[in-house]
From TrEMBL, chains A, B:
Gene3D superfamilies reported for this sequence: 1.10.1370.30
Keyword Kinase: no
InterPro entries per UniProt: Peptidase_M32_Taq
UniProt source species: Litorilinea aerophila
GO molecular function, one term: metal ion binding
Active site residues per record: 269 (proton donor/acceptor)
Pfam families in UniProt: Peptidase_M32
Name the record gives this protein: Metal-dependent carboxypeptidase
Catalyzed chemical reaction(s): Release of a C-terminal amino acid with broad specificity, except for -Pro
UniProt remark on cofactor binding: Binds 1 zinc ion per subunit.
Ligand binding (Zn(2+)): 268, 272, 298
Amino acid sequence: MNPKYQAARSELLARLQEIEDLKSVAALLTWDQATYMPPGGSRARARQLATVGRLAHEKFTDKAIGHLLDQLQPYVETLPEDDDDAALWRVVRREYDRAQRIPAQFMADVANHTAAVYMAWTEARPANDFPRLRPMLEKTLALSRQYSQYFPEHEHIADPLIARSDFGMTVATIRPLFQRLRQELLPLVEQVTAQEPADDRFLHQYFPEDKQWAFGLEVIRRFGYDLHRGRQDKTHHPFMIKFSLDDVRITTRLDPHDLASGLFSTLHEAGHGLYEQGINPAYEATPLADGASAGVHESQSRLWENLVGRSRNFWHYYYPRLQETFPEQLGKVSLDAFYRAINKVERSLIRVEADELTYNLHVIIRFELELALLEGTLTIAELPEAWRASYQEQLGVTPPDDRDGVMQDVHWYAGLIGGGFQGYTLGNILTGQFYAAALAARPSLPDEIAAGDFAPLLSWLREQIHWHGSKYTALELVERVTGGPIRLEPYLDYLWQKYGELYRLSRPKVDPVPGA
Amino acid sequence: MNPKYQAARSELLARLQEIEDLKSVAALLTWDQATYMPPGGSRARARQLATVGRLAHEKFTDKAIGHLLDQLQPYVETLPEDDDDAALWRVVRREYDRAQRIPAQFMADVANHTAAVYMAWTEARPANDFPRLRPMLEKTLALSRQYSQYFPEHEHIADPLIARSDFGMTVATIRPLFQRLRQELLPLVEQVTAQEPADDRFLHQYFPEDKQWAFGLEVIRRFGYDLHRGRQDKTHHPFMIKFSLDDVRITTRLDPHDLASGLFSTLHEAGHGLYEQGINPAYEATPLADGASAGVHESQSRLWENLVGRSRNFWHYYYPRLQETFPEQLGKVSLDAFYRAINKVERSLIRVEADELTYNLHVIIRFELELALLEGTLTIAELPEAWRASYQEQLGVTPPDDRDGVMQDVHWYAGLIGGGFQGYTLGNILTGQFYAAALAARPSLPDEIAAGDFAPLLSWLREQIHWHGSKYTALELVERVTGGPIRLEPYLDYLWQKYGELYRLSRPKVDPVPGA
């Protein structure tokens, strides 16, 4: 590398390090706020988060970053596309150009507005008072549409919003995938729920929190989550958060009367944590030290939570240990009964409590409502009723109020409308595709899982996915790992195989939607 | 205020807020490092602390701050000296001018050097390997002398270093105070230790940590420490740390075989916490939201730890409760025996474990060694032997090694040499003076303490000391509170009264040192 490039590269890395350090600091402020901060600290904490966020934004949108990128372009063009420097340059260029499109004043308006909406939501939701939020949400929608106008080249108005978390995906690619998925899920859910529901009452006995905590930790340690480079704490809403590649923390929530809730939340967040703990350490303090997209991130959490954690093989190994931990509660419950209970399917109101099958229906409802709002075919005033109608039509349940209806999820009340939900279902779809690729590479995986040996699966994920951080976009990564585009079929195969076996069903023929 | 001043004042406050937010963020990084950070996080954490520290320094030394101070000077000159704006201007002017004297490169050199020395100390101390540290410490001493050279107007070379934590105090004012204190302490210690030592073996039974924790929390809550605006965690070295005036946290350390150690550490840190929780909320996010000096801060911790926490009146109220908490361990131990045990005096090696009487001798030894090093009458090579000789002469004990001798305290191995110790003994002296003033204003305080009512004492401290933050210098504050300069006599009266009663001693006449 010639000295001119070397100097520019060093300066760019130093600037990126400073920005990443500020982002890590913001993450620590957030983590502390959710875990240990005394209530009195909240006002100053909001101010500190705003200060640090503003500094990071100022430093990233500094024209000097653009100049350095320009200076480095001829160097990067000599590199193979697969080179880390080239990848870093592309990611920074993309993010920098995106940030330059958005006026600082607009970002500040969004931050102030969404902070106010969030505060109002925390009060209006318990009071079931959607009308209070309506004018605020109308402004949120206007801001969301405005955001997309900064990217006038978009094909669909939701695309720039989707690109913020799932870069490369668009309405044109997601909508047919989701339509086909729903088309397959509806009859499956219909058949499953037509049968006697699984008895899961024994999961709602009293399970002391300390034992739940210890069991969950034991499982995720065995998965490979490194407690030397991470830790688990309790929060109201579980999450994963990173302060550096060597400090990736998770949180969980335990309910002494609900064994499954805390356990699967722990496995889910550990899946996110395993992803970030596995990123190439050379990417530390650069934008490459991140997940490839919201969807890919969710694929990692869901893979460990569902494809591993709710599998018969997993419990073949772990159920005797769980019975030892809770002999009074589970001593007389068979493995088969337990396996059915943790995979109970029911039409329900709440996304985050939904089972593996119906979960995607919750997500698709939200995704389509978002699109309708952005397209202008639905107004905020009509939203609560549209929510109810969608639930009635697709899930067969009617929310008795807006609290557990349109005000259920925080997303629309803590940011822009659009782009916040598709990642969950993209992640689920990818679990099927990634796991099928892993199985093809190593057919012994199920037996290893049944023997409590998760190292082979983790190694494969590390090498194929984790290691690369955000070097590749989601679509590039899927192409590398599976040899093609995102495909629904492996996920459908997985669902039909699992639930077909559980409920003795055989898969009907469905006309494929073109392109899915 | 005319609009020009108003604009300058607003801009200055906005800049100060940003700087204070960065300092709070650095404090959170530090707190997390000591409490919950997984070991793997340490490398990135050092980098993040350096980034945030550098940004705060850059922003505070920005010439714009100087211009704003200049612009505001005519406005401030129209204000009464006691006005908050005037005080803020003085404090910022003082700190800004000090910061301007020090080249940024020098600060960076000091930061890098002291980080390296600290790392080396953590290894060399357990290995009893002072020779390894010697060349590093010689550089630290050279840097310390260099620091003072940036303030060529100093009277004594240690004065600029002392001013960093105890602004307004100088060698000329501290040395005679400390000499007189030693002159008084030596015969008192002599007489006390000539008697049969108090039996404190019962303090070293097994005391379950959770009960120690709950008891300590109950006491400090009753002191007035607000857990809505603070919290307590466990760390290896206890400390108090502030993230905002509404989030002032403390840490403690519990030893299941040493009841006094954890309890008095808790009371000590709570004293620091009460100080900062009591600062005028109008000072939030400005440099006034801080203690007046290291000495004044220590006076608040020591007052609650010793003058309250080791008093007979306090235990008159709390000992029955402690016995209820630990009936097996203390049920048969009388209040009198307990009171003697927690006030046991012995000549010992370790400062942080020393009793109330000998503690100051440990500090004065360090203070005088620092002065000798800075004056050039002592070399680093001679320091270990000088340490041993001082301990032998003044405390009658000889450190068997350098680990518990010259390498005992972190101070010289984590910063400059000079100015790090005097605050401890200045604080002790001030406890006597402040408490005497409190008693004069409210003679019923001892009875209130004996009834477990700490609110009157806290109210007095709040109003007289806490509320003002760093609005006044230590000397101004002492003048306001006691009507005169720092005086040793009230502290000596307190010590003689307490230990005279405990050991049936009467105070000999000592020729006063002029000026003390």
